[in-house]
Amino acid sequence: MHPDLPGLYYLGSVVLAPAELPSVERVLNEEESVGSVEEAGATHMPTIAMLPEQIGSSPELSSNSRASIRFTTHVKESRMFYRLQGRWYYGLNLGQSYTISKCGDGSWRFEEELAGRKCTSTLRVVGDWVEGHLIDQEGQRTGTIRLQRGEGNSVLSYFRDLGSSNWSNPNEAIGW
Question: pLDDT tens-digit profile of 98-149?
């Protein structure tokens, strides 16, 4: 740091001010505007349909492109989880709730207690949804939960019983 100019850095004969960091709101707005442009078909890169596990071994992509795709996927997934984080209320008089939180190891967890039976799930991104296998307090799998941020301050969830191929009707929960 230059002794006469606090907050400025001295590098040889050049005084540099640190770059201003963007706000979280600005970053999210930029992500949304980029997503809107890409959805409209105005992408600057050709689209290559690939599964995430194919990205690392694809000869069509340079290592920089693979890293960029992985980073973009990570940002999208992180954003999906952060938008679901919190306590969400639903049911008659909003008397039931579930919680979505980030664990110390970086994974995301769903927790809910119904009729004295606590169920948890480690969540993962599946397409445009966040999903997880529900496990009760006895370690038994009970079904699958699927979640997605809804309009306003809401989350849509669907439940699928163990062994079933059908999802329940949507359940809308709200947070505050």
Answer: 999 999 998 999 999 987 889 999 999 998 899 999 999 999 999 999 999 9
∠ Cα 87 88 89 (to 5°): 125
Question: How far is 155 from 90, CA to CA, in rounded Å?
Answer: 10
pTM above 0.70, yes or no: no
Q: How many residues comprise the chain?
A: 176
